[in-house]
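Crash report, auto-generated. Payload:
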Amino acid sequence: MFGQVRYWALKELFIPLLRTYEAKRRGSRPRKGSLPLSSNRVLKGLIMSHYYLGRYAKGVLPVAWVTSGAPVELLRPFGFYTIYPENHSALCAAQKMGGGLCLVAEERGYSKDLCSYAKIDLGVFFSGRTPVGRLPKPDLLFASNNICGTVLYWYRVLSKEYSIPLIVFDTPFNYGPLRQEDLDYMLDQIEEIIEKLQRISKREFRMERLIKTMRLSKATCELWQEILNTMKQIPAPATIFDIFSHMLPIVSLRGLRSAHSYYQVLYWELLQRVRDKVSPLSEERIRLLWDNIAIWYKMRDLSELMMRHKANLVGATYTNAWAETIVHMDPTRPFESLAKAYSLVILNNNLYHRLELIRKLATEFKVNGVIMHSARSCKPYSLGQYDIKRILQERYNLPCLILEGDIADERYYSDEGNKTRIEAFLESLI
Amino acid sequence: MKRVFGGIDIGSLTTKVVLIDEKMSILSGQIIYTGYDGIHAAHEALERALSEARLKQEEIQGIVATGYGRHLLDFAHKAVTEITCHALGALYYYPNLRTLLDIGGQDSKAIGVDPGSRRVTNFRMNDKCAAGTGRFLEVMAERLRLDMERMIQLALDAKEALEISSLCTVFAETEVVSMVAQGKPIGEILRGLHMAVINRVYPMLRDVGIKPDVVMTGGVAKNKAIVRLLEERLKLKVFVPPDPQLTGALGAALIAMNTSD
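Recovered output after restart:
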């Protein structure tokens, strides 16, 4: 009872105050020569309140830990408080805690070659160290293998350690167009998942709630798409590093009102910049596309390096991943929409799809070249990049650079080598 | 008054300076060890180059810095990567250059060049690993107590090459030690070591595309065994410019000349 009163008091009284305070507070030191978005302050309040409220959610709401590609909309009607370990790992990495937390997992016998999101999460589990104070213990784990196979093994470890159930949404890989039997297989799973969620949450499933969530989720993804579209302007109103840092709501708060409201604020600011032709660069001489997950611990350095060379990363296959399957979302047919939207994502699709996607984005965003981050952690995303690069260069005359690195473990990043690679690439484009 | 331009290449092992005049004639070239202070090494190499050419620093119209220490020099007018500089320096001698291999003390680079536009079209650099670089051969020479010249000659004279399977410098060292202990002929071991470098850089060359003229620069281009084995592997003539270590600094000096106009 006390827990419930405390949770609702925090949610309804303290959190709005905190968010107002954060929005009005002066931000930290901006990047050299950069033009920070004023929405950053609103975002900071949103992230803080998400993790802060999470500390007190346990016992009041059922808590689920979810993979970035799982159909979270299914959890929303049951009122789950959702935590995204991948997102949290990225947050740890941005705070330069990645290597240290990976080491904790490695000391327990987990291989160095594992994904660093997984290693960081296990490191957090074993050490209790996190920049957000405390993560709520999960009652349920929800994973989908549409992004990789690692999540299954990672979540099985969590399931064993916490002694809690793991629900897996299995999405067959698309070697070609989506097959009817695969769709049927996924629809069967969704029905089973709903039954399990009713048991775990001890709440009845109500279809109208799912439809409402789907509407909100679709609207948020559409808003996200519009935000990405503002970057097609020359000059672009922001950098991809700004967009990367605004991904938490679309990943972690998808299907919730707060994500949609936040993106209205961000969209409005970017629209104003487009209207006033405001650019974070003194001059935008080179426009580039990014492939693969961000390098979370190098955002500031890479952003400054790009700015020094009057180059701007304006689009990314990564940020696009939360907008690319909107067409399949029909809130009136929620089950089919979820199966299609979540199984047709970039990482569950063949290389030809990847190649065509990069070509399409390169044309739409009017870029001079592509930087492909070959991420040691993310094999599904990095596999095939050398072939895609070769085809883009030879057949379509689109210069590409492959940057070896890692998403969250700074020990795998060679600073000098990559600086030379990027500068030489930019020199070849001018 | 003569117009003079300078290129300074601060590498991991050595610092190189080249001075040229407006007719692109090389007035002076210097190589010294970088040591622990790249800025000091750059000043020292520049002073030596100036005294060799009987010039004063004020007479230099433009300086471009390159190499790992390119951002250290406050008196340089511009910093350009060694990839671009090596390409321009090699084009100076070989205007039909299309594929360039630069093996330095700490890294190796395969660079695709379009001779028409004189631009770098594609490049690959080695990862965070010393295998396939000059350092790899140096470590082995030190281990076997051979001087470089002798090591190269023994490798050239050997008929066969023993296979060094390890990709890692440290593990390859262990492998070589065990081969020596087994009484394997030293020439064949050394030829195998040189082949290991070629095997390491070959995929990078393949990736950027191997098209004649193929040119090799960097300190390792002075190694005749490497050049011969590379020619055998590529079945192509591999050109090596005079003073291949100075190619990056020469390219930097050429950029200094072109940007000062």
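Post-recovery validation: Strands of chain A lie at 63-66, 81-83, 140-144, 166-169, 286-291, 311-316, 369-375, 400-405.
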